[in-house]
Structure formats: C-alpha cells, structure tokens
C-alpha cells in the first residue's frame, strides 16, 4: 500500500491528533504544513534549504506542470522527484482548483473541463482520467482526485450539482489510477458551506475507500469563522484512521484552529507569496519590512526565531534588499516564513503530546495579536 496512516495519539481536550504518514519516499509526522512548489520548485528555495528547515513533504501542481514543461518531459526525466532533485514525499494537486481559479474557463461538462492556458491562451481539456494520467507520470507519492471546487459564495443548487459531479469524477479517478502500490490517491470532500451537503459529499467520497481525504472548497474567500464551522461538522465524518488534508490553508491562526478541529495536513502559497512582498510572519505578528520605521533598525526580523535569516541579518539590511529589489530579499523572507510555519507545526505536535494545545493557542494568539 502506497500510503499508510498511523494514529499515534488523540488529544484529550480537542479534535487534534498526532500521527505518521508512511509513504514510499519517507515518513511524515502530522500535523504538518506542506510548502508549495507549484512549478516543481518552492520559489527561491533549494531542496537542501528545505531539508535544513525540516520540510518533510512539498506540493506541486498537475495543471501547471501539464502546461509547462509537460508531464511527458518530467516522466522522461525519471519523474518529479528526480527532475527537481527532491527525494522526500511529494503531493500533487489535481488541477481542479487551478483550472477554475487560473485558466480562462471555457466550459465544464460531465466529461471534464475545457479551458484556456493562463500562459499562452491555448485551448486545453482535462478530464478526471487525464488528471490521473498526468499525476501517474509525475510519480508523486500522494495524488489528488480531479474535483470541482465550488466558488464562494455559491447557492445550494449549484453546490449540490457540483458535489455530485465531483463524486462521479472521483469514481472515474479511482478507476483510472494505475500505480496504486506507489501512489496514494486521496478523495476530496466538497459541499460548500452547507452542512447537509458536506454530509452527503463526505458519505459519497469516504464510501469509495481512499487512503486519505481532503476537505476541499474552503479557503476560497469565506470568513475564517465560517471555515472553522464547516470543519467542526465535516472532520468527524472522515475516517479516524486516514489522514485529513485541508487544502489551501496556511496562516498561523488557521493552522492552529484547523488542527484543533482534526486536520492533519495543510498547504498554502501564503508564506512564500508574502515573502516576495517583503512581509514576514513573526512571533509578534506580521512585519512588513518596507515601512520607514525599519530604516535603521538593526535587530533581527524576529527576536525569538533562530533561523538562518534571523541569526545573520537585520531589519535594516532586509529593508534595503527589498527596496533595492534584490533577489536575496525573496530568498531570506521565504526561508524565514517557511521556517516559522514548520516550527509552529513542530510546537503544535509538542503541545498535543503534552496535552496543552489550548494553552499553546492562547499564548500564541496573545503574542501574535489574534483575537481568540
Ligand atoms: C494565497 C492565498 C491566501 O491562498 C488561497 C487564496 O489566496 C486563494 C487564491 O485565490 C482565491 C480563490 C481568492 O483564494 O486560494 C488559495 C488557496 N485556497 C485553496 N486552495 C485550494 C486548492 C484546492 N484543490 C482542489 N483540488 N480542490 C479544492 O477544493 C481546493 C480548494 C482550495 N482552496
């Protein structure tokens, strides 16, 4: 079996869990944050730097790699691990979300989705079978079913039709998936913000018996309390002995709140995206370095952080790099932000172990400036 989940401990106070996911490229300790490497690179980071900050698994993307450089080339290179020189686990998203949020959407049918490339406007068609074929070529350890991520807001009728098509597509993905012994196919639960529809989608998708399940259709612009509410009634419907993955979530508060509600895996472009805008996640909240007040501030980005960036550079220098549009700026901010989130997940795992996750949340929120 490609993917095996080991439930280590259930938190006494919350829905949080400690676990291990065994994959052909190594074991992942959960709860975990997965850095996003959309085009076969976590932007500006080398694989060695990702290992230095203890990144256990990274994400890449079917839609992007299909369009460029083409999954055939990656297969010819010996697969994505070899192509990008990353020998630890990789998860690939199926392209469902990207087609809807990136491509110039042409039309969606029972067969699949026709769209125009965001790169050159060329016309393409991706079916559930095609999305699986591409991921089988890439050779990622965890692959995702081809689904429709309903937009927010969307009315009940749209969400119901969309989740039922997602179920039919999930069955087609399961049938098309070839490498079941080396690649684990995760199902994706949809249903928008409607409890009865989340229940229907969870039932239909978990009946298909995948090695892991994602909660899709969230982090699409809905208010955070609404996302937490959906998780509250959705994760209990997901098997305890399988990993639970919340797609597209990556701010510190959402990670903690998601773990408390039973989520094991997260991904988001946020840490690397805001890094390129000179914004850091720090123990005292966000720091946006372009502010004039940092001109002659010779203290580290985050006094409580022991990462390479914080040990070797000052805010004044980092502000200079950002203002001068230096490439090193993106690198040093990306390194710190990823380190910050991975360290947060390590602290969360520790707090679950010591049964004090709620105290940890309180302390973190007070310092970071979140309201409980
Ligand atoms: C950078 C940032 C914060 O990450 C968010 C947010 O912007 C942004 C960027 O476009 C909007 C929509 C406005 O939301 O979507 C980013 C991540 N949210 C997300 N990624 C997802 C990926 C998904 N993949 C699949 N296959 N199925 C899903 O249901 C799914 C849902 C997802 N939700």
Automatic annotation (TrEMBL):
UniProt EC number: 2.4.2.29
Cofactor(s) this protein cannot do without: Zn(2+)
Biological pathway: tRNA modification; tRNA-queuosine biosynthesis
Region feature (RNA binding): 248-254, 272-276
Residues binding substrate: 93-97, 147, 190, 217
One GO cellular component term noted in the UniProt record for this chain: cytosol
InterPro entries in the record: ArchSynthase1/Queuine_TRR (IPR050076), TGT (IPR004803), TGT-like_sf (IPR036511), tRNA_ribo_trans-like (IPR002616)
Entry keyword Protein biosynthesis: no
GO process terms (BP): tRNA queuosine(34) biosynthetic process
Cofactor note: Binds 1 zinc ion per subunit.
Transmembrane segments annotated in the record for this chain: none
Keywords linked to the UniProt accession: Glycosyltransferase, Metal-binding, Queuosine biosynthesis, Transferase, tRNA processing, Zinc
Reaction it catalyzes: 7-aminomethyl-7-carbaguanine + guanosine(34) in tRNA = 7-aminomethyl-7-carbaguanosine(34) in tRNA + guanine
Subunit field text: Homodimer. Within each dimer, one monomer is responsible for RNA recognition and catalysis, while the other monomer binds to the replacement base PreQ1.
Function noted in UniProt: Catalyzes the base-exchange of a guanine (G) residue with the queuine precursor 7-aminomethyl-7-deazaguanine (PreQ1) at position 34 (anticodon wobble position) in tRNAs with GU(N) anticodons (tRNA-Asp, -Asn, -His and -Tyr). Catalysis occurs through a double-displacement mechanism. The nucleophile active site attacks the C1' of nucleotide 34 to detach the guanine base from the RNA, forming a covalent enzyme-RNA intermediate. The proton acceptor active site deprotonates the incoming PreQ1, allowing a nucleophilic attack on the C1' of the ribose to form the product.
NCBIfam families: Q_tRNA_tgt, tgt_general
Family per record: Belongs to the queuine tRNA-ribosyltransferase family.
Entry protein name: Queuine tRNA-ribosyltransferase
The species this protein was found in: Paramaledivibacter caminithermalis (strain DSM 15212 / CIP 107654 / DViRD3)
UniProt gene name: tgt
